[in-house]
Specification:
7% of the residues lie in helices and 41% in strands. It is mainly beta.
Length: 150
Amino acid sequence: MIVDNISQAQRYIALHSDFAVAMNLLQQLDFHQLNDGEIPTNHPNIRLFIGVEPMRTREVAKPEQHRYHIDIQIPLSSDEEYGWLDVGSLKNGLGYDEKRDIEFFDCAPSVWINVGVGQFAVFFPNDAHAPLVGNQTHIRKAIFKIRCDK
């Protein structure tokens, strides 16, 4: 997991072959001017989604894990809290959805991290995360999904 300011995104381009493109988009796009939905990236391994999602409390947030995607999550309208748990500590899987590359787990995160507007969080396949936690009723956010081998 990585949490940093968007202005520092270039630090991480060596971590994955598609990070140079993703981090350039992260720094160059004006997310507030883009419509909700899937945004074209012109890259076969990178998908970008922008949308408004309901927030929840820590108590109801379930960790999720992706086997074949790295998430870069960017809160746009307010701070967002994320629970984190190493995948080796996950318990009580609720069933893997192969089409969406996601599995939820009925266990509690071990760490909580706040990510503010102007920051981003990167979750690798070994990072289970419980997003959308906060005091607001809804949040507008952007999520890059970067395809990777497990």
